[in-house]
Specification:
Blueprint: H1 3-26, E1 31-33, E2 44-48, E3 52-57, E4 62-66, H2 75-101, H3 112-150, E5 161-163, H4 165-185, H5 190-210
Antiparallel strand pairs: 1-2, 1-5, 2-3, 3-4
Helix pairs in contact: 1-2, 1-3, 1-4, 2-3, 3-4
GO molecular function: structural molecule activity
InterPro entries: Claudin (IPR006187), Claudin_CS (IPR017974), PMP22/EMP/MP20/Claudin (IPR004031)
Pfam families: PMP22_Claudin
Length: 211
């Protein structure tokens, strides 16, 4: 795969990951009511996300309510919120920086070395936004859901919560963004370095001919 095609593939993968991360942050299905055990399945399904909680009835009617207070939320929800917001901001800057540094764009094409370095910087932003933010936020929330599900409690197992679809979307978004950022980080200006090395090697031989 050529350098330009690799950059384009990495950019599209990272862009898809950022769109998925935005969807995961907005969806209320970070955890959902569990139907495990030998209990009767109720007609109401409960969902809870970073910003709201919803109740879906068997008739198809869905009622959602925003979380009332930020300070009254659990620590893992507040932390996941902050990490997802930072992730989306880093991804936004990564999109802009990567567009400037990609070979298929006309911006700064008179200096290919600097342009490639800008593309690498965009890839680093994507990797940071996925690895240190999206993945951390989703994994932290999933860890808390797992802990509450398996801990000893008087709450019956069918009244507890398990993983929602937004968690899996978040893991997929993190994987896509890290893959795309890694491909963009491979855009090192190797050809320019090879040209400079060839020039330095050929310089002494020309001097000897003139002497």
């Amino acid at each position: 795969m050529g350098g330009g095609a690799r950059e384009l593939a990495g950019y599209l993968a990272a862009l898809g990951g950022r769109v998925a991360a935005l969807a995961a942050a907005a969806l209320p299905q970070w955890r959902q009511s569990s139907y495990a055990g030998d209990a009767i399945i109720t007609a109401v399904g409960l969902h809870e996300g970073l910003w709201m909680s919803c109740a879906a009835q068997s008739t198809g009617q869905v009622q959602c309510r925003l979380h009332d207070s930020l300070l009254s939320l659990d620590v893992h929800i507040q932390t996941s919120r902050a990490l997802m917001v930072i992730s989306l901001l880093l991804g936004f800057f990564g999109i802009i920086v990567s567009v400037v540094g990609m070979k298929c764009t006309k911006v700064g094409e008179e200096d290919p070395v600097t342009k490639s370095r800008i593309a690498v910087a965009g890839g680093v932003l994507f990797v940071l936004s996925a690895g240190l933010c999206t993945l951390a936020a989703v994994s932290l929330y999933a860890t808390q859901v797992t802990y509450e599900f398996f801990r000893e409690s008087s709450v019956p197992i069918n009244a507890r919560y398990e993983f929602g679809s937004a968690l899996f979307i978040g893991w997929g978004a993190a994987s896509l963004t890290m893959l795309g950022g890694s491909l963009l980080c491979c855009s090192c200006p190797a050809e320019a370095h090879q040209g400079q090395q060839y020039y330095r090697q050929s310089q002494p031989s020309m001097t000897r001919q003139y002497v």
